[in-house]
Structures are given as C-alpha cells and as structure tokens.
Write a structure and sequence with these properties.
Elements (H helix, E strand, L loop, with lengths): L10 H19 L9 H14 L6 H12 L13 H14 L4 E5 L2 H11 L8 E2 H4 L2 E2 L4 E2 L11 E4 L7 H5 L1
Parallel strand pairs: 1-2, 1-5
Antiparallel strand pairs: 3-4
Helix pairs in contact: 3-4
C-alpha cells in the first residue's frame, strides 16, 4: 500500500481558496436577480451600438456579452485589440437600459481609471479600486462589505482580475 503523502500549505491561502470555492458555489446556486432579456432586445442593443456608436460586434463578442449577462460568474479574456472594451460597453448599455445597478472595479487606481475611460461611463458610475468598493478599513484590516453586508449592486465588473490575489478574492 502506498504511504499517505504529507502536504504543507500556507494556512491563510488554503482557507482563502476553499472559502472562495464555497462562496462561488453559493453564488452559482443563488436565485437569478437580473431581468430576463429576449433575443429581440439583444439584437436591438447590438443594432443601436452599430448605428449610434459605430460599434460593430463580432459574433464572438455578442456571444460573450450575452453570456456575461446570463451567467452568475464569467470571465472575458483576450489580448490587446480583441474587443474586450467594446464588449463591456455593449454590456453596460444593456445594464443601463434594463435599469440594472452595476459597479465597475479594478485592483489598482490606474486600472480603475482605464476601465472607466474604456467603458465610457458617466462620473457617477466611475470604476473604483476593489479596496474602495469593498470599503476597506485599514485601522483593523477588514472590509465593511462582506457576506453579512453585501454590495448593493446587481452586477459587478472587475477588470484586470489576474492581478487579484486569493486573499483579496476571498475577502
């Protein structure tokens, strides 16, 4: 018989990884809170973007935008110039049209500023750093927004998520 293997793992990361997985499972099982959107409405949004903003979305971009709206958690990836910002603009147009409350965030102030510029949002919808969005309290190293006091948005877009470490993700 094979001997059991011992593993050494940094405890805060282990708890954060397991806790994050647990919270994602809860999120995926939670009731849908967004208003349904018919294909006809999607087509109208995409036509308006094409006519009024000269934004031509590819079939893949349309698919990505629709998936981001319909799934509780989604990841949009791609290199520079692949249309991520255009996809986010299309998604935001639909969110505003359906009166869905949303927040934009990024790990750093510079990334938040770039996201705001790329998304073309009004001043009241400017992206914030994740720490600011979650109301970080440095005096006791906690976040005021958490499981017991969740964000009051129906939809959250976080840019540059690859810069977020597992401890912040879990918080």
């Amino acid at each position: 018989a094979a001997e059991p293997q011992q593993r050494i793992y940094y405890a805060p990361f282990w708890y954060a990884e397991n806790g994050s997985a647990r919270l994602l499972r809860l999120l995926l099982k939670s009731p849908e809170s967004l208003p349904p959107v018919s294909q006809q409405i999607w087509d109208r949004v995409f036509d308006l973007l094409k006519q009024n903003r000269n934004m031509h979305l590819t079939d893949r971009q349309r698919e990505a935008v629709q998936m981001a709206y319909s799934k509780k958690v989604s990841i949009l990836t791609g290199g520079p110039g692949t249309g991520k910002s255009t996809s986010i603009r299309a998604l935001l147009m639909l969110l505003r049209n359906r009166k869905v409350s949303f927040a934009l965030a990024a790990p750093t102030g510079r990334a938040a500023k770039r996201l705001s510029e790329a998304a073309g949002v009004p001043p009241e919808a400017q992206a914030k750093t994740l720490h600011r969005l979650l109301e970080y309290a440095p005096h006791d190293n906690t976040y005021q927004r958490n499981e017991d006091n969740p964000l009051r948005y129906q939809f959250v877009i976080v840019d540059e998520f690859s810069m977020v470490d597992i401890l912040l993700f879990y918080d």
